[in-house]
């Protein structure tokens, strides 16, 4: 939907005012409703489905493979595919690279280690289904999907199950390929409950005036002055912190204080968001996984 | 897996079924009420397919430039998403994968004979299929999912199209193949309209002795009718729910 | 730019009404094929031209030594190229002008030929292996469509199979890791190992009643015809291609949607095709035998050439 100048001005004024009034009466730190489910794809190690009220759906899968490597940075591969976009389009490549880098930089490689030589290689595949027509035919860019994608990959990684390793973890002397238990009942979590490690979450924050808002809606994106994506993991702000174009008209400069406000916002909501996602993980999916 | 284990002398298959048993068939409609006009989710064993239908509408977003609208019926466009994680081994497929292109053409021709064309002249119907997990019966699952999603979108059809795959193990026909069986045995996929014995689509890509074909088809038709009943039941349940809500 | 083949209403009605009375424009019966004319090149191996009525294709088979695919070190390579150029008819676009995107028909034709000949294992790929993992024969069949009057699929399958049967690859010897190829003059070239001859038959369906009768009714009087010409192909409401060999093995069958046809009628089609495949295989073999005979007796060949000039 294209807004008129008057509408834009009205939304801008109310967003950048003291109380940050948003068009859908959310608070500045409130998300639109999201639904999610996980572990419903039988032939993946981990999977998740996150979808918004307006029909955008993000399906993420994690597959693991045993590889012999020394190069840890290559152990995580991310691929984002958006329906209706070529898979080598700049947007898909950008989103894949951004998510891959943020995961690689904040990963606990110890959980991927099998033996001194063998590691699990993790493939994270993201599929965005049914992007609303509004996105396709106007000045919005799809970078705002980043937070949805990162929640999807968080859930998929957290729900990822691996077969139980039965061979020894110390093979300094003998070159032995790792072997696993056949019984899926014995499968272990990729990220054990005892581990402190949390996969990175990336939040998209809109900047308007000296105010910051989380999860900007389509109307709001048109009047934003800039957008930043900020990583969050285990209570801390982590890379990436970078500016993303949310529409083709934003991109105005912003000052340091606003950025500090944005990181403050992410720090503030990081904890409740992680808790909400973890609650979804503990929900049981029935045997036939009819999450649809 | 050796060929012998696919069908034991006692008459059991790898997943414990008998020769004429379907896998668990689950389906839901209207799974994505906000994203599309009609949507369906079909699960046959471990194969899971999503289908979204948009339309009938005046313009299709996924339509190739320059496609003319047809005065005698709708233009169907079918896109298939086959993400790399859907198969057991991760494998990236190209967008212009020949096999998928062929399947989409076959499906298009199949549904052009099932939709009541005269109601939808000069319109576009956009069908998008997503494979979440594939464990055999690709074409059959696609076909069943499209039927349900079209019904959900309120597009008038003459009848259900239900499809199933049937394989051949020596002398025995096996209904509803899974990936293990598909990789070692020859199989046929057939699609049937309604409760008739008429075949709408049929695809066979491997060698099958001609004299066995008849048995495969007759078992297949039985299987299709069963699938049709299951789909019909689900549609009626969905209709009931809709009525109660009003 | 692709031109659509527009058929006037009068023409359409004329053809369809004639079909309902079991008459086709060229006087054939519904399930009769046009005459297959096979020309094999007397001078070289692996070049054939086939015509089926006015439809004409040429096929050339070539061989070279290549590295096998990594995942199949014991198999040779076999490729079939089927690009339809506008030479044969203005309905087809060349790959350059259409931006490399193929039309529906083209995709189906190339997939069908691929499945009929390659997937059915007509050519023994293992016999093409020279040194496992490093050297193998790569056989390539190039199909050229010269004129289009319907039924490209059937004729292509005949062309590829005849060309493969006719082709001879140079004889060779393996010396350690070196491969020595012999010229045609040194040693007689050797034929490919062909396991069976799959041939395609395409049936077209027409509906004398309305759609509703086709779906709900049980008249089952849909018209079925074999080897359609261009105009019949355009008017058809559905088609089915099956590939069969003379061992009565069905190699491939596609009924891509279209008119709904009773299973028993489909079985009849298969039976009919299995009768035809015997005759056609015999014909192919006799043509090739004749060619081989002429090669062994060069004198007779020369006499034949003289005779041809006379007429």
From TrEMBL, chain A:
Keyword set includes Cytoplasm: yes
Domain of life from the UniProt record: Eukaryota
InterPro entries per UniProt: ExoRNase_PH_dom1, ExoRNase_PH_dom2_sf, Exosome_comp_Rrp42_subfam, PNPase/RNase_PH_dom_sf, Ribosomal_Su5_D2-typ_SF
Major subcellular site: cytoplasm
GO MF annotations in UniProt: mRNA 3'-UTR AU-rich region binding
Location within or outside the cell: Cytoplasm; Nucleus, Nucleolus
Record-annotated Exoribonuclease phosphorolytic domain positions: 30-163
Gene3D superfamilies: GHMP Kinase, N-terminal domain
Record's keyword annotation contains Transcription regulation: no
A GO CC term attached to the entry: nucleolus
Keywords for this protein: Cytoplasm, Exosome
GO biological process assignments: exonucleolytic trimming to generate mature 3'-end of 5.8S rRNA from tricistronic rRNA transcript (SSU-rRNA, 5.8S rRNA, LSU-rRNA); nuclear mRNA surveillance; nuclear polyadenylation-dependent rRNA catabolic process; rRNA catabolic process; TRAMP-dependent tRNA surveillance pathway; U1 snRNA 3'-end processing; U4 snRNA 3'-end processing; U5 snRNA 3'-end processing
Family stated for the protein in its record: Belongs to the RNase PH family.
Alphabetical list of PANTHER family matching this protein: EXOSOME COMPLEX COMPONENT RRP42, EXOSOME COMPLEX EXONUCLEASE RIBOSOMAL RNA PROCESSING PROTEIN
The protein's name: Ribosomal RNA-processing protein 42
Automatic annotation (TrEMBL), chain B:
GO BP, one annotated term: nuclear mRNA surveillance
Domain of life: Eukaryota
Gene Ontology cellular-component terms listed: cytoplasmic exosome (RNase complex); nuclear exosome (RNase complex); nucleolus
Domain Exoribonuclease phosphorolytic residues, every copy: 21-155, 159-222
Keyword Zinc recorded: no
Family of this protein: Belongs to the RNase PH family.
Subunit structure as annotated in this protein's UniProt entry: Component of the RNA exosome complex. Specifically part of the catalytically inactive RNA exosome core complex (Exo-9) which may associate with the catalytic subunits RRP6 and DIS3 in cytoplasmic- and nuclear-specific RNA exosome complex forms. Exo-9 is formed by a hexameric base ring of RNase PH domain-containing subunits and a cap ring consisting of CSL4, RRP4 and RRP40.
The protein, known as: Ribosomal RNA-processing protein 41
Lineage: Eukaryota, Fungi, Dikarya, Ascomycota, Saccharomycotina
Automatic annotation (TrEMBL), chain C:
Location in or out of the cell: Cytoplasm; Nucleus, Nucleolus
GO biological process, one term: U4 snRNA 3'-end processing
Pfam family, one: RNase_PH
InterPro entries from the UniProt entry: ExoRNase_PH_dom1, ExoRNase_PH_dom2, ExoRNase_PH_dom2_sf, Exosome_comp_Rrp42_subfam, PNPase/RNase_PH_dom_sf, Ribosomal_Su5_D2-typ_SF, Rrp45
Alphabetically ordered keywords of this record: Cytoplasm, Exosome, Nucleus, RNA-binding, rRNA processing
All residue ranges annotated as the Exoribonuclease phosphorolytic domain in the record: 32-170, 220-273
GO molecular function: mRNA 3'-UTR AU-rich region binding
Any one annotated GO CC term: nuclear exosome (RNase complex)
PANTHER family, per database record: EXOSOME COMPLEX COMPONENT RRP45, EXOSOME COMPLEX EXONUCLEASE RIBOSOMAL RNA PROCESSING PROTEIN
Similarity-based family: Belongs to the RNase PH family.
Protein name per the record: Exosome complex component RRP45
């Amino acid at each position: 939907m294209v807004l008129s100048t008057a509408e834009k001005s009205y939304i801008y004024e109310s967003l950048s005012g003291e109380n940050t009034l948003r068009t859908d009466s959310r608070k500045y730190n409130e998300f639109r409703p999201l639904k999610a489910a996980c572990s419903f794809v039988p032939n993946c190690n981990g999977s998740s489905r996150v979808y918004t009220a307006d029909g955008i759906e993000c399906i993420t899968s994690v597959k693991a493979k045993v590889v012999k490597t020394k190069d840890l940075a290559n152990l995580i591969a991310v691929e984002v595919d958006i329906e209706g976009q070529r898979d080598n389009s700049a947007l898909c490549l950008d989103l894949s690279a951004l998510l891959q880098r943020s995961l690689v930089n904040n990963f606990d490689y110890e959980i991927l280690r099998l033996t001194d030589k063998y590691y699990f290689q993790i493939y994270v595949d993201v599929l965005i289904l049914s992007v609303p027509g509004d996105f396709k035919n106007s000045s919005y860019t799809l970078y705002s999907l980043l937070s949805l994608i990162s929640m999807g990959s968080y859930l998929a990684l957290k729900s990822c199950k691996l077969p139980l390793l039965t061979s020894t973890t110390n093979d300094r002397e003998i070159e032995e390929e790792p072997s696993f238990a056949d019984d899926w009942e014995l499968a272990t979590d990729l990220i054990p409950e005892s581990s402190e490690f949390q996969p990175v979450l990336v939040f998209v924050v809109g900047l308007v005036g000296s105010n910051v808002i989380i999860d900007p809606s389509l109307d709001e994106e048109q009047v934003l002055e800039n957008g930043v994506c900020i990583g969050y993991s285990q209570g801390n702000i982590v890379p990436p912190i970078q500016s993303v174009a949310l529409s083709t008209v934003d991109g105005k400069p912003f000052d340091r204080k606003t950025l500090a406000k944005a990181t403050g916002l992410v720090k503030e909501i990081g904890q409740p968001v992680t808790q909400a996602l973890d609650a979804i993980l503990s929900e049981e999916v029935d045997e036939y996984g009819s999450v649809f | 897996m050796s060929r012998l284990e696919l069908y034991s002398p006692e008459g059991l298959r790898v997943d414990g079924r008998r020769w004429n048993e379907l896998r668990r068939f689950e389906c839901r409609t209207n799974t994505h009420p906000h994203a599309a006009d009609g949507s369906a989710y079909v699960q046959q064993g471990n194969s899971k397919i999503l289908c979204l239908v948009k339309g009938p509408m005046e313009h299709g977003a996924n339509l190739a430039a320059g496609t003319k609208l047809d005065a005698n019926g709708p233009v169907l466009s079918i896109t298939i998403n086959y993400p790399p994680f859907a198969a057991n081994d991760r494998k990236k497929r190209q967008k212009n994968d020949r096999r998928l292109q062929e399947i989409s053409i076959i499906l298009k021709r199949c549904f052009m004979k099932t939709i009541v064309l005269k109601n939808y002249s000069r319109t576009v119907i956009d069908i998008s299929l997503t494979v979440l997990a594939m464990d055999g019966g690709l074409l059959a699952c696609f076909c069943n999912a499209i039927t349900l999603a079209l019904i959900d979108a309120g597009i008038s059809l003459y009848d259900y199209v239900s499809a199933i795959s049937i394989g051949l193990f020596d002398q025995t026909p096996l209904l509803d193949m899974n990936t293990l069986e598909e990789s070692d045995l020859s199989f046929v996929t057939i699609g049937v309209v309604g409760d008739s014995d008429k075949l709408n689509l049929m695809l066979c890509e491997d060698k099958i002795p001609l004299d066995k074909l008849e048995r495969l088809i007759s078992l297949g038709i039985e299987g299709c009718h069963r699938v049709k009943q299951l789909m019909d039941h689900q549609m009626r349940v969905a209709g009931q729910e809709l009525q109660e809500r009003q | 730019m692709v031109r659509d083949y527009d058929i006037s209403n009068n023409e359409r009605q004329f053809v369809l009404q004639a079909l309902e009375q079991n008459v086709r424009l060229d006087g054939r019966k519904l399930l009769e094929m046009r005459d297959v004319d096979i020309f094999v090149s007397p001078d070289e191996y692996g070049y054939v031209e086939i015509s089926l009525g006015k439809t004409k294709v040429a096929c050339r088979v070539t061989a070279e030594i290549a590295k096998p695919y990594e995942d199949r070190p014991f198999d040779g390579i076999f490729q079939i190229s089927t690009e339809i150029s506008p030479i044969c008819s203005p309905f087809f676009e060349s790959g350059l002008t259409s931006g490399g995107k193929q039309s529906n028909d083209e995709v189906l034709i190339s997939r069908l030929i691929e499945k009929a000949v390659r997937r059915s294992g007509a050519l023994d790929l293992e016999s093409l292996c020279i040194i496992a993992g490093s050297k193998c024969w790569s056989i390539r069949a190039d199909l050229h469509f010269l004129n289009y009057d319907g039924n490209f699929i059937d004729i292509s399958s005949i062309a590829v199979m005849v060309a493969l049967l006719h082709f001879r690859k140079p004889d060779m010897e393996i010396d350690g890791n070196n491969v020595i190829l012999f010229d045609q003059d040194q040693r007689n070239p050797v034929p490919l190992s062909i396991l069976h001859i799959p041939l395609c038959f395409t049936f077209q369906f027409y509906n004398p009643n309305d759609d509703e009768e086709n779906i709900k009714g049980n008249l089952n009087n849909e018209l079925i015809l074999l080897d359609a010409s261009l105009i019949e192909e355009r008017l058809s409401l559905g088609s089915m291609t099956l590939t069969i060999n003379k061992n009565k093995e069905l190699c491939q069958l596609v009924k891509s949607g279209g008119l709904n046809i009773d299973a028993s009628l489909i079985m009849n089609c298969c039976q009919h095709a299995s009768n035809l495949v015997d005759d056609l295989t015999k014909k192919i073999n006799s043509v090739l035998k004749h060619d081989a005979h002429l090669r062994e007796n060069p004198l007779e060949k020369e006499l034949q050439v003289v005779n041809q000039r006379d007429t």
